[in-house]
Amino acid sequence: MSEAVPSPAAPPARNAERIAARLKARHRAEARFRALGLGAVVLSALVLALLLFTMTSNGLGGFTRNELRFPIDLTTGVLNIQSAQIEGTDAVQALDTAALKDVVELSAEKALGEQASGELATTAWREVAQQIIADPTLLSRRFDVSVPVSDAMAKALRGEGDPQLGLLARKLKQEGKLHRALDIGFLTRSDATSPQQVGIWGALKGSILTMLVTLGVAFPVGVAAAVYLEEYAPKNRWTDLIEVSINNLAAVPSIIFGLLGLAVFLWIFPYYRSAPLIGGLTLALMTMPVIVISGRNAIKAVPPSIRDGALAIGASPIQVVFHHVLPLALPGILTGTIIGMARALGETAPLLMIGMRAFVATPPGSFTEPATALPVQIYLWSDEIDRGFVERTSAAIIVLLIFLLVMNGLAIYLRNRFEKTW
Amino acid sequence: MSPVIPILFALGLGLSGWLAARARADGFRRALPGSRLASLPQQHGWYVALWAAVPALLFAAVWAAISPDLVLAHVLADPAAAKLPAFGFQRETILAEARALADGTIKIGFNPLSKPLVAPYRAALGHFGTIGLAATILLGLAGGGFAFSRIRPDFAARGKVERAAMLGLLAASLVAIFTTFGILASLAFETLRFFNLVNPLDFLFGTNWSPDPMSAPTSGVEHNYGAVPLFWGTVYIGVVIAMIVAIPLGLMSAIYLTQYATPRVRKWMKPLLEILAGVPTVVYGYFAALTVAPLVRDAAQMIGISGASSESALAAGLVMGIMIIPLVSSMADDSIAAVPQAMRDGSLALGATKSETIRRVIVPAALPGIVAGIMLAVSRAIGETMIVVMAAGRTARLSLDPLDGMTTVTAQIVALLTSEGTPDHPATLSAYALGFVLFIVTLALNFVALRVVKRFREAYE
């Protein structure tokens, strides 16, 4: 206390000086503190920027691949096939019997030299076959094809692997015969063992099927639970227990849900291991608490006068909720649902537990076929040793992030569009 | 046959029941003009739809679960099954292949033994599939027909439908309890099996973790399952390193955004930080493994630490801390906003600077909320899986050096359950024991955090 009160003996000028000095120090501390706060925000934003930058700069390359371009001449009748044969369902097989593979290799050899023709990807002729099937007039024409190179050459082009092959690749590149081309097929193919041939459609389809199951289970159950708890539940020990378990479930680590799925769902349905059905059910249990919590908030926000009005003209409690409260609360519930679904879409660990990590080269045809999901695919590719998978992995991440961005954008739009004040 | 087909049939029956009953009820109304039905036509519709769909759906679900076993029993009764190896992995593989061939999932089989089984399998699948579908449809028709026959002008469908709706709502809210119970039961059951093989004390206090899913189930069970290195790795990565990153950054961001930033900045920066929470953890894991871990390694080598590996606790912890920032900052944000304006004004009126007010008044007043946020963040960090799986390594190690690779509880669960071990092997079972510990710890943290928040909220109301 005594220090704070200036001693009466001190000259007022020195006193003022001391106060000014201290004030300056305090203002400096203020500025420092403020700068620290700003620094924290900026640093967090920078990390986010770095994350997005590395993914995009790596990933943009993942939408392209190295292709060799050379002409093929089918006019000379080297391909012993009728155009009627390539209209059926087994067109690829017909082209295989007609030795299209040899024709492609021969053409490549003529145009690129013997060494380079050995570096076509093993599926190269299939892509040519697809082109011919899409446009049968090619059978009587000379045309240019652009097909993927082998992994070895793609690797050599990056400066790894065989230096001899690297020299050849650079030479071809200078001659314009080897180029990087946009690879639309990345979005339509499925998993493969070589980074030049992989695609994400299988994983994406698996993710979509899984999300459909999740939505189909979590949304009705979550909304019904929210309605019950908010509108009808008596206040007793049972409803307390329900409430506590919902709040707890919202905070349980996702991998625990994976263990639950493994122990319960796969015990009931042992034949649907790694199927979207089981994955979706597992994720639904994880998403449901999110929907319940946001649903309750949305229902709570509907003013009581609406319920009273409906009750007053003779509606039953069920009609009040289903005809009046729910429609008004729906935008809020949907916002919460989309956010919960976005979280489920990015979830990996529970799906690993129930076995959705297998190598699946064909996209799943139904809910019960083995499948993988987009985040799991990312995880699997990230484990691959071949450096070519780095860009593919990042490209898959870009696709996943775009999906999440769209979902979150939709949630924000819904919230703004239907935000109501009563 | 896919179990989806009977479900679709059941739903279709429900829909047609709805339409038929509604039309009939409408007919009553037209037949007796001026009179009132006891219920609205669509309530009759719902009544019939529920009777048609619900029993059939329940049956379809149960059938989907039990019919594979019936099919299997049928196939095993076939003479072709006599050549199968008696038990074990090979037998399972052959049966799975025959099944996949039979239902057309795969086209070509590799195992010669599976070929003779395909025909009986296909026959059994068709047989039981037809039975299931027929029973589903019959059940749906019977239920719907019974309900339809009860429809009369004076039939009070509304009360019955509403009671059913209420039951449905109640059942939905019970799902949460069942899920909690299911988690507890499945974890506890497998954990008990594990503790039959390994002493719980050895598990909780042992310091050597080296399970081998390929070993004989009984070898070395006593001293290979000491989980202390895993607990240490979890705490070191998720609590020590991650919180060193997340607490200052999260707290200072919240303070800046609530106290200093202009509304415009706040409007943009807050959602931007929230994006950090929405990025899938597998992406963080990849970021940690691809970008941060090499950076950490190079930095370590630059300051003269040799032998730094590309898998380090530091890289995983740093990235996890970044992921946690928005969690800390939004909780801090909320509790700072809950501090009454009068307290802030009082402090400012006494001549304190803004930062002094924040440090001496606002933060202490908001402390319970901030602490609760940090506890939730810790619980999230120790339950986080993908980052540590991808960036922290798989070596169980008791070390203080952040540049060492370490492993965590979650990473080990993934490692153990995705390896080729049999379900009864102690290595597989230990994953459930680890999950049980994780579940209990995260629940306790959340419980305490929610308590803290609740008590703190009451202080100002």
TrEMBL record, chain A:
Localisation: Cell inner membrane; Cell membrane
Signal peptide (UniProt feature, chain positions): none
Transmembrane segments: 33-53, 208-229, 249-269, 275-299, 320-342, 395-414
Pfam (any one): DUF3333
Protein name: Phosphate transport system permease protein PstA
Family in the record: Belongs to the binding-protein-dependent transport system permease family. CysTW subfamily.
UniProt topology in membrane: Multi-pass membrane protein
Keywords recorded for this protein, A-Z: Cell membrane, Membrane, Transmembrane, Transmembrane helix, Transport
InterPro entries named in the record: DUF3333, MetI-like, MetI-like_sf, Phosphate_PstA
Annotated PANTHER family: PHOSPHATE TRANSPORT SYSTEM PERMEASE PROTEIN PSTA, PHOSPHATE TRANSPORT SYSTEM PERMEASE PROTEIN PSTA-RELATED
CC terms in the record's Gene Ontology section: plasma membrane
Domain of life (superkingdom): Bacteria
Single GO biological process annotation from the record: phosphate ion transmembrane transport
Single GO term (MF): phosphate transmembrane transporter activity
Keyword presence, Disulfide bond: no
Occurrences of domain ABC transmembrane type-1 (ranges): 204-411
UniProt KW Transport keyword: yes
Automatic annotation (TrEMBL), chain B:
Main location, first listed in the record: membrane
PROSITE patterns: ABC_TM1
Keywords, alphabetical: Cell inner membrane, Cell membrane, Membrane, Phosphate transport, Transmembrane, Transmembrane helix, Transport
GO biological process annotation, one example: phosphate ion transport
InterPro entries, alphabetized: MetI-like (IPR000515), MetI-like_sf (IPR035906), Phosphate_PstC (IPR011864), PstC_N (IPR022182)
A GO term for molecular function: phosphate transmembrane transporter activity
Any single Gene Ontology cellular-component annotation: plasma membrane
Location of the protein in the cell: Cell inner membrane; Cell membrane
Record CDD domains: TM_PBP2
Membrane topology: Multi-pass membrane protein
Top-level division of the source organism's lineage: Bacteria
Record bears the keyword rRNA processing: no
Residue ranges occupied by any ABC transmembrane type-1 domain in the UniProt entry: 232-449
Transmembrane domains' residue ranges: 6-25, 46-66, 124-148, 169-189, 230-251, 272-293, 313-340, 361-382, 429-453
Family named by the database record: Belongs to the binding-protein-dependent transport system permease family. CysTW subfamily.
Function field: Part of the binding-protein-dependent transport system for phosphate; probably responsible for the translocation of the substrate across the membrane.
Protein's recorded name: Phosphate transport system permease protein
Organism: Candidatus Andeanibacterium colombiense
